[in-house]
Amino acid sequence: MALTGRTALLAALGTLPVGIWEPSWTGILAVNAPLALACACDFALAAPVRRLGLTRSGDTSVRLGESADVTLTVTNTSGRPLRARVRDAWPPSSWQPGTEVTASRHLLTVPPGERRRVTTRLRPTCRGDRRADRVTIRSYGPLGLFARQGNHEVPWTVRVLPPFASRKHLPSKLARLRELDGRTSVLTRGEGTEFDSLRDYVPGDDTRSIDWRATARQSRVAVRTWRPERDRHILLILDTGRTAAGRVGDAPRLDASMDAALLLAALASRAGDRVDLLAYDRRVRALVQGRAAGDVLPSLVNAMAHLEPELVETDARGLTSTALRTAPRRSLIVLLTTLDAAPIEEGLLPVLSRLTQRHTVLVASVSDPHIERMATARGNTEAVYEAAAAAQAQAERHRTAEQLTRHGVTVVDATPDNLPPSLADAYLALKAAGRL
After folding, report:
1. What distance in Å separates the CA atoms of residue 371 and residue 23, rounded to the nearest whole number?
2. Buried b (16+ CB within 10 A) or exposed e, 162-199
């Protein structure tokens, strides 16, 4: 049978038949000396690891659920060719489960004085900053018998941003916004402060909008139309307390709230309104203020990248005081929180009047689609009990929403997929009604 590779080398060095010899020190030394010499030569001919030059380039940010490519450039400054295995280490959350080994390990050959690039593809599983760990290089000699190994610190950070899956709704909401602005043939009947044009009266129009002078000049009643107000202030408040940590589907409630906030921010900034962000539980977790329209969305996603729910009860009084300091003038305050009875009745309701006296308040909450499915379940005793429990939970949320409505608050309660468009629709309705 033909021998190949290392087996052929060992046979040539005379080490294979050692098992049939009588063991003696002389025989052992005679047999192993050529092998030791070969290993020493192989080690000496392996490219040194410490003298390699390593640099990084590539993506510095990525949306959650997408891939980021980070390129590692290896420069061989020695006079020997580099034959190496490279391990580019990153935190475990930088990969999908089971893909770390194949994604982080590379085979590399670099001739003397040249450079080569290897690309590590990351697919993070959670938001935040992912920082590169050390790069481990194992340099082999030409025979592959011995290797040098060393580590290099090559810093690089990839920021994992919220996915903003609701951006698919933005074109349709912008089309509705253009209708409100009078840029299409649809006329706005809402109240505003900027006069647009005159049109004929139709039943249901506000009589305060009738232009009596124009009516006197013609035989039909004329009413004024208004453009929606611009340059309004909107404060988005993310409740990052313990209720935001509850999982709805595969993600915490906070993630769905952030997605809805991003869609509203993108829409409002296009509408000419100013958007700020406050994340709060017992202290300020993030604050974005005074950004220009083009910088609002990048600033928000960067601020949200590090946000995680805190397992503490949200301080409603502290949240209210901070909101009033952040928005000293009349604003639309959008509070993304829970509609659970206890946090609302014991926390928010006692201090809600401080907000509603000065601002327009909108409360948005994420409902659990599993509860909705349970409420319609039938077929056996267990399903009926589950349906009864789901109906009770829904009734409690409805009572809480009614309490907020009686205090003049607009309430949006929807599942994670429906919350962003529903919140955008509520904003457009307030804008059309001149309530901003």
Report:
1. 78
2. bbbbbeebbeebeebbebbbbeeeeebbbbbeeeeeeb
Assign 208 to helix, strand or coil. helix
58 near 71, Cβ under 8 Å? yes
Residue where the block lists tokens 């039909």 = 220
Q: Tell me the two tokens of residue 135.
A: 């790069």
Is residue 309 within 8 A of residue 336, CB to CB? The reply is: no
The angle subtended at Cα 109 by Cα 97 and Cα 144, nearest 5°, is 90
Q: How far apart are CA 436 and CA 427, in angstroms?
A: 9
Amino acid, single-letter form, for residue 65: G
Half-sphere CA count of 181, side-chain side, radius 13 A: 13
User: 10 Å Cβ neighbour count for 86?
Assistant: 23
Cβ-contact 282, 321 below 8 angstroms: no
The pLDDT of residue 263 is 97
The distance of Cα 25 from the centroid of its chain, to the nearest Å, equals: 67
Distance CA 279, CA 236 (A): 8
* 96 contacts 125 by C-beta, under 8 angstroms: yes
92 in Cβ contact with 154 (< 8 Å): no
182 and 196 in contact (C-beta within 8 Å)?
A: yes
What is the tens place of the pLDDT at every residue in 362-407? 999 999 888 888 888 777 888 888 888 888 888 999 999 999 999 9
Tokens of 307: 């946000």
Q: What is the mean pLDDT of residues 133-149?
A: 87
Q: Rg of the chain over CA atoms, in angstroms?
A: 33
Q: Measured between alpha carbons, how far is 1 from 8 in angstroms, rounded to an integer?
A: 11
What is the edge-to-edge ordering of all strands in the sheet holding 115-122? 53-58, 68-75, 115-122
State percent of the chain over pLDDT 90: 56
**pLDDT value for 193:** 47
